[in-house]
Protein backbone atom coordinates (compact mmCIF):
# COMPACT_ATOMS: atom_id res chain seq x y z
CA UNK A 1 0.00 0.00 0.00
CA UNK A 2 2.91 2.33 0.61
CA UNK A 3 3.84 2.03 -3.07
CA UNK A 4 0.27 2.80 -4.15
CA UNK A 5 0.21 5.91 -1.96
CA UNK A 6 3.27 7.16 -3.83
CA UNK A 7 1.44 6.72 -7.11
CA UNK A 8 3.05 3.41 -8.03
CA UNK A 9 0.75 0.67 -9.30
CA UNK A 10 2.25 -2.83 -8.99
CA UNK A 11 1.93 -4.91 -12.14
CA UNK A 12 1.65 -8.70 -12.26
CA UNK A 13 1.13 -10.73 -15.41
CA UNK A 14 -0.30 -14.24 -15.23
CA UNK A 15 0.87 -16.02 -18.36
CA UNK A 16 -1.08 -19.21 -17.76
CA UNK A 17 -3.60 -20.37 -15.20
CA UNK A 18 -1.59 -23.57 -14.77
CA UNK A 19 1.40 -21.69 -13.36
CA UNK A 20 1.60 -21.86 -9.58
CA UNK A 21 3.50 -18.59 -9.36
CA UNK A 22 3.14 -15.39 -11.32
CA UNK A 23 5.66 -14.20 -13.87
CA UNK A 24 7.01 -10.71 -13.38
CA UNK A 25 7.39 -8.56 -16.47
CA UNK A 26 9.54 -5.50 -16.76
CA UNK A 27 7.63 -2.32 -16.02
CA UNK A 28 8.29 1.27 -15.08
CA UNK A 29 6.36 3.28 -12.52
CA UNK A 30 6.83 6.89 -11.45
CA UNK A 31 6.23 8.45 -8.06
CA UNK A 32 3.91 11.45 -7.74
CA UNK A 33 7.03 13.58 -7.44
CA UNK A 34 7.97 12.57 -10.99
CA UNK A 35 4.60 12.39 -12.72
CA UNK A 36 2.28 14.60 -10.70
CA UNK A 37 -1.36 13.69 -9.96
CA UNK A 38 -4.86 14.69 -11.03
CA UNK A 39 -5.23 17.41 -8.39
CA UNK A 40 -2.01 19.01 -9.62
CA UNK A 41 -3.46 18.95 -13.13
CA UNK A 42 -6.66 20.64 -11.94
CA UNK A 43 -4.68 23.31 -10.10
CA UNK A 44 -2.61 24.00 -13.23
CA UNK A 45 -5.74 24.35 -15.35
CA UNK A 46 -7.38 26.62 -12.75
CA UNK A 47 -4.34 28.89 -12.83
CA UNK A 48 -4.55 29.33 -16.60
CA UNK A 49 -8.28 29.56 -17.35
CA UNK A 50 -9.86 29.91 -13.92
CA UNK A 51 -12.26 27.67 -12.03
CA UNK A 52 -15.60 26.45 -13.32
CA UNK A 53 -14.28 24.31 -16.17
CA UNK A 54 -15.85 21.16 -14.64
CA UNK A 55 -12.89 18.94 -15.53
CA UNK A 56 -12.36 16.36 -12.76
CA UNK A 57 -9.46 14.32 -14.17
CA UNK A 58 -6.95 16.70 -15.69
CA UNK A 59 -3.61 15.18 -16.64
CA UNK A 60 -0.71 16.91 -14.86
CA UNK A 61 1.84 18.80 -16.94
CA UNK A 62 4.69 16.90 -15.35
CA UNK A 63 3.36 13.56 -16.59
CA UNK A 64 2.74 14.69 -20.17
CA UNK A 65 6.14 16.38 -20.36
CA UNK A 66 7.85 13.22 -19.20
CA UNK A 67 6.04 11.09 -21.79
CA UNK A 68 6.85 13.56 -24.57
CA UNK A 69 10.52 13.68 -23.63
CA UNK A 70 10.69 9.88 -23.63
CA UNK A 71 8.95 9.24 -26.93
CA UNK A 72 9.04 12.33 -29.13
CA UNK A 73 12.23 13.69 -30.75
CA UNK A 74 13.06 17.38 -30.19
CA UNK A 75 11.68 18.30 -33.62
CA UNK A 76 8.79 15.82 -33.64
CA UNK A 77 5.01 16.16 -33.79
CA UNK A 78 2.81 15.22 -30.83
CA UNK A 79 -0.73 14.08 -31.70
CA UNK A 80 -3.40 14.05 -29.00
CA UNK A 81 -6.65 12.72 -30.44
CA UNK A 82 -8.52 13.41 -27.16
CA UNK A 83 -7.10 16.80 -26.25
CA UNK A 84 -9.52 17.54 -23.40
CA UNK A 85 -8.24 20.48 -21.37
CA UNK A 86 -5.24 21.05 -23.64
CA UNK A 87 -2.51 19.79 -21.31
CA UNK A 88 -0.57 18.31 -24.25
CA UNK A 89 -0.40 21.63 -26.09
CA UNK A 90 0.66 23.39 -22.88
CA UNK A 91 3.38 20.78 -22.27
CA UNK A 92 4.79 21.08 -25.80
CA UNK A 93 4.96 24.88 -25.56
CA UNK A 94 6.77 24.66 -22.22
CA UNK A 95 9.26 22.07 -23.48
CA UNK A 96 10.01 24.18 -26.55
CA UNK A 97 11.70 26.68 -24.26
CA UNK A 98 14.59 24.23 -23.97
CA UNK A 99 17.57 24.63 -26.30
CA UNK A 100 17.37 22.92 -29.72
CA UNK A 101 13.75 21.94 -29.17
CA UNK A 102 10.97 22.75 -31.61
CA UNK A 103 8.15 20.23 -31.29
CA UNK A 104 4.73 20.79 -32.80
CA UNK A 105 1.36 19.52 -31.67
CA UNK A 106 -1.96 18.50 -33.17
CA UNK A 107 -4.88 18.56 -30.75
CA UNK A 108 -8.23 17.00 -31.65
CA UNK A 109 -11.30 17.57 -29.50
CA UNK A 110 -15.04 17.51 -30.26
CA UNK A 111 -16.25 18.46 -26.79
CA UNK A 112 -19.40 17.08 -25.22
CA UNK A 113 -21.66 17.29 -28.25
CA UNK A 114 -24.58 15.57 -26.50
CA UNK A 115 -24.78 18.45 -24.04
CA UNK A 116 -23.93 21.09 -26.61
CA UNK A 117 -20.67 21.82 -24.81
CA UNK A 118 -18.17 22.53 -27.56
CA UNK A 119 -15.25 23.24 -25.24
CA UNK A 120 -12.66 22.64 -27.96
CA UNK A 121 -12.83 26.40 -28.53
CA UNK A 122 -13.84 27.69 -25.11
CA UNK A 123 -11.38 25.60 -23.08
CA UNK A 124 -8.84 23.59 -25.12
CA UNK A 125 -7.89 26.39 -27.49
CA UNK A 126 -8.36 29.04 -24.80
CA UNK A 127 -5.81 27.39 -22.54
CA UNK A 128 -3.23 27.19 -25.34
CA UNK A 129 -3.89 30.84 -26.25
CA UNK A 130 -3.41 32.02 -22.67
CA UNK A 131 -0.19 30.03 -22.29
CA UNK A 132 1.21 31.66 -25.43
CA UNK A 133 0.17 35.20 -24.49
CA UNK A 134 0.94 34.82 -20.79
CA UNK A 135 -2.57 36.05 -19.97
CA UNK A 136 -3.30 33.62 -17.14
CA UNK A 137 -6.34 34.14 -14.92
CA UNK A 138 -4.12 33.74 -11.85
CA UNK A 139 -1.84 36.55 -12.98
CA UNK A 140 0.28 37.73 -15.86
CA UNK A 141 3.03 35.31 -16.92
CA UNK A 142 5.87 35.63 -19.39
CA UNK A 143 4.60 35.01 -22.94
CA UNK A 144 5.70 31.73 -24.51
CA UNK A 145 6.85 31.86 -28.15
CA UNK A 146 4.59 29.84 -30.38
CA UNK A 147 1.27 29.83 -32.13
CA UNK A 148 -1.50 27.60 -33.43
CA UNK A 149 -4.34 27.43 -35.92
CA UNK A 150 -7.87 26.50 -34.87
CA UNK A 151 -9.56 24.43 -37.58
CA UNK A 152 -13.16 23.29 -37.30
CA UNK A 153 -14.45 20.30 -39.24
CA UNK A 154 -17.90 21.08 -40.59
CA UNK A 155 -20.03 17.96 -40.73
CA UNK A 156 -22.25 19.29 -43.48
CA UNK A 157 -19.27 19.51 -45.83
CA UNK A 158 -18.66 15.76 -45.69
CA UNK A 159 -20.86 14.33 -48.43
CA UNK A 160 -21.38 10.71 -49.47
CA UNK A 161 -18.62 10.91 -52.07
CA UNK A 162 -16.08 12.01 -49.47
CA UNK A 163 -17.15 9.22 -47.10
CA UNK A 164 -16.82 6.62 -49.86
CA UNK A 165 -13.40 7.96 -50.82
CA UNK A 166 -12.20 7.64 -47.24
CA UNK A 167 -13.66 4.12 -47.02
CA UNK A 168 -11.88 3.14 -50.23
CA UNK A 169 -8.53 4.45 -48.94
CA UNK A 170 -8.99 2.55 -45.68
CA UNK A 171 -9.84 -0.58 -47.65
CA UNK A 172 -6.65 -0.20 -49.70
CA UNK A 173 -4.63 0.17 -46.50
CA UNK A 174 -6.06 -3.11 -45.23
CA UNK A 175 -5.43 -4.91 -48.52
CA UNK A 176 -1.82 -3.73 -48.57
CA UNK A 177 -1.29 -4.81 -44.98
CA UNK A 178 -2.76 -8.28 -45.55
CA UNK A 179 -1.06 -8.94 -48.89
CA UNK A 180 1.36 -11.87 -48.97
CA UNK A 181 2.94 -13.40 -52.05
CA UNK A 182 4.39 -16.86 -51.36
CA UNK A 183 6.58 -16.72 -54.45
CA UNK A 184 8.16 -13.44 -53.39
CA UNK A 185 8.42 -14.04 -49.62
CA UNK A 186 10.72 -11.29 -48.32
CA UNK A 187 9.90 -9.13 -51.36
CA UNK A 188 6.18 -9.50 -50.83
CA UNK A 189 5.60 -5.77 -50.43
CA UNK A 190 3.52 -3.51 -52.63
CA UNK A 191 4.37 0.05 -53.56
CA UNK A 192 1.28 2.15 -53.06
CA UNK A 193 0.44 4.86 -55.58
CA UNK A 194 -0.75 8.30 -54.45
CA UNK A 195 -4.48 8.37 -53.70
CA UNK A 196 -6.61 9.35 -56.67
CA UNK A 197 -3.95 8.66 -59.31
CA UNK A 198 -6.10 6.04 -61.04
CA UNK A 199 -9.64 4.81 -60.67
CA UNK A 200 -8.63 1.18 -60.09
CA UNK A 201 -4.83 0.87 -59.95
CA UNK A 202 -3.57 1.39 -56.39
CA UNK A 203 -0.26 -0.47 -56.07
CA UNK A 204 2.59 -2.18 -57.93
CA UNK A 205 4.65 -5.19 -56.86
CA UNK A 206 8.35 -5.94 -57.34
CA UNK A 207 7.62 -7.59 -60.72
CA UNK A 208 6.05 -4.38 -62.06
CA UNK A 209 2.56 -5.88 -61.97
CA UNK A 210 -0.42 -3.75 -61.07
CA UNK A 211 -2.93 -4.27 -58.27
CA UNK A 212 -6.42 -2.98 -58.94
CA UNK A 213 -9.52 -2.44 -56.81
CA UNK A 214 -13.04 -2.37 -58.23
CA UNK A 215 -15.00 -0.57 -55.54
CA UNK A 216 -16.51 2.91 -55.61
CA UNK A 217 -19.37 2.83 -53.12
CA UNK A 218 -21.41 0.31 -51.11
CA UNK A 219 -24.46 0.82 -53.32
CA UNK A 220 -22.53 0.12 -56.52
CA UNK A 221 -21.68 -3.43 -57.63
CA UNK A 222 -18.05 -4.44 -57.18
CA UNK A 223 -17.85 -6.60 -60.29
CA UNK A 224 -14.98 -7.51 -62.59
CA UNK A 225 -16.72 -7.51 -65.98
CA UNK A 226 -15.52 -6.81 -69.51
CA UNK A 227 -15.85 -3.04 -69.22
CA UNK A 228 -13.96 -2.95 -65.93
CA UNK A 229 -11.20 -5.13 -67.40
CA UNK A 230 -10.80 -2.75 -70.35
CA UNK A 231 -10.29 0.14 -67.93
CA UNK A 232 -7.76 -1.90 -65.98
CA UNK A 233 -5.77 -2.77 -69.10
CA UNK A 234 -5.74 0.88 -70.14
CA UNK A 235 -4.51 2.01 -66.72
CA UNK A 236 -1.76 -0.62 -66.80
CA UNK A 237 -0.61 0.64 -70.20
CA UNK A 238 -0.51 4.24 -69.01
CA UNK A 239 1.51 3.18 -65.95
CA UNK A 240 3.78 1.00 -68.17
CA UNK A 241 3.10 -2.15 -66.18
CA UNK A 242 3.31 -5.81 -67.09
CA UNK A 243 0.39 -7.71 -68.58
CA UNK A 244 -0.59 -9.50 -65.41
CA UNK A 245 -3.43 -7.92 -63.50
CA UNK A 246 -4.13 -8.53 -59.81
CA UNK A 247 -7.74 -7.50 -59.29
CA UNK A 248 -9.70 -7.15 -56.05
CA UNK A 249 -13.50 -7.22 -56.40
CA UNK A 250 -16.55 -8.88 -54.87
CA UNK A 251 -17.50 -10.77 -58.03
CA UNK A 252 -15.65 -11.82 -61.18
CA UNK A 253 -17.94 -13.14 -63.94
CA UNK A 254 -15.30 -12.14 -66.51
CA UNK A 255 -12.00 -14.01 -66.76
CA UNK A 256 -9.61 -12.42 -69.23
CA UNK A 257 -6.00 -13.18 -70.06
CA UNK A 258 -3.51 -12.47 -67.28
CA UNK A 259 -6.12 -11.82 -64.58
CA UNK A 260 -5.37 -12.83 -61.00
CA UNK A 261 -8.65 -12.36 -59.13
CA UNK A 262 -8.90 -11.81 -55.37
CA UNK A 263 -12.25 -11.60 -53.65
CA UNK A 264 -12.39 -8.64 -51.28
CA UNK A 265 -12.33 -10.34 -47.85
CA UNK A 266 -15.53 -10.03 -45.85
CA UNK A 267 -13.42 -9.04 -42.85
CA UNK A 268 -12.11 -6.02 -44.76
CA UNK A 269 -15.61 -4.92 -45.74
CA UNK A 270 -16.90 -5.36 -42.21
CA UNK A 271 -13.95 -3.42 -40.80
CA UNK A 272 -14.91 -0.32 -42.77
CA UNK A 273 -18.56 -0.68 -41.78
CA UNK A 274 -20.26 -2.51 -44.65
CA UNK A 275 -22.25 -5.73 -44.51
CA UNK A 276 -20.92 -8.07 -47.22
CA UNK A 277 -24.03 -10.25 -46.98
CA UNK A 278 -26.49 -7.52 -47.91
CA UNK A 279 -24.73 -4.70 -49.76
CA UNK A 280 -25.10 -4.29 -53.50
CA UNK A 281 -21.47 -4.78 -54.39
CA UNK A 282 -21.65 -8.39 -53.17
CA UNK A 283 -24.90 -9.25 -54.91
CA UNK A 284 -24.92 -10.59 -58.45
CA UNK A 285 -28.57 -9.68 -58.83
CA UNK A 286 -28.18 -6.13 -57.52
CA UNK A 287 -30.14 -3.52 -59.41
CA UNK A 288 -27.90 -1.74 -61.86
CA UNK A 289 -25.22 -4.43 -61.86
CA UNK A 290 -23.60 -4.40 -65.31
CA UNK A 291 -23.49 -7.59 -67.32
CA UNK A 292 -20.27 -9.44 -67.98
- Average pLDDT taken over every residue: 82
Report the biggest beta sheet as strand number plus sense, adding barrel if it closes: 5 strands, mixed
Alpha plus pi helix count: 9
Poorly predicted tracts of residues? 4-17, 279-292
How many beta-strand elements? Answer: 9
- Secondary structural class: alpha/beta
Largest sheet, spatial ordering of strands: 5-6-7-8-9
Radius of gyration: 27 Å
Tell me what portion of residues adopts beta-strand conformation. 5-15%
What's the number of domains? 2
What is the CA–CA distance across the termini? 72 Å
Helix content: 25-40%
Order of helices and strands: HHHHEHEHEEHEEEHEEH
Q: What would you call the shape? A: elongated
Concise synopsis of the structure shown:
This protein is of the alpha/beta class and 292 residues long. It contains nine helices and nine strands. The protein has helices spanning 2-5, 32-35, 38-49, 61-71, 87-95, 119-133, 160-178, 226-238, 266-271; strands at residues 77-80, 104-107, 135-136, 139-140, 191-192, 201-204, 210-213, 245-249, 259-263.
Please write out the topology.
Elements: H1 2-5, H2 32-35, H3 38-49, H4 61-71, E1 77-80, H5 87-95, E2 104-107, H6 119-133, E3 135-136, E4 139-140, H7 160-178, E5 191-192, E6 201-204, E7 210-213, H8 226-238, E8 245-249, E9 259-263, H9 266-271
Parallel strand pairs: 1-2, 7-8, 8-9
Antiparallel strand pairs: 3-4, 5-6, 6-7
Helix pairs in contact: 4-5, 5-6
Explained architecture:
By secondary structure, the protein is of the alpha/beta class. The protein has 2 domains: about 1-155, no CATH class; about 160-280, no CATH class. It is built from 9 helices and 9 strands. The strands form 3 sheets. Strands 5-6-7-8-9 form a 5-stranded mixed β-sheet, with helices on one face. It has a two-stranded parallel ribbon with strand order 1-2. The chain has a two-stranded antiparallel sheet with strand order 3-4. The N and C termini lie far apart (about 70 Å). Mean pLDDT is about 80; it is low at about 5-15 and about 280-290.
Amino acid sequence: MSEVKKGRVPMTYWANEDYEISLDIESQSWDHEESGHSQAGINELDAVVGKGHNFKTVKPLRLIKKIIQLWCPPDGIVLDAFAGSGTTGHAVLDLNQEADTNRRFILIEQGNTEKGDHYARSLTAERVRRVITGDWVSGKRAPVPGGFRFIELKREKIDAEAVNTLAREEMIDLLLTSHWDKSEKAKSYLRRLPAGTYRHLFAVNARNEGFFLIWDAPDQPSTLNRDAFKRIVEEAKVAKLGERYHVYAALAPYTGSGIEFYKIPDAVLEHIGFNPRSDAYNNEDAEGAPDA
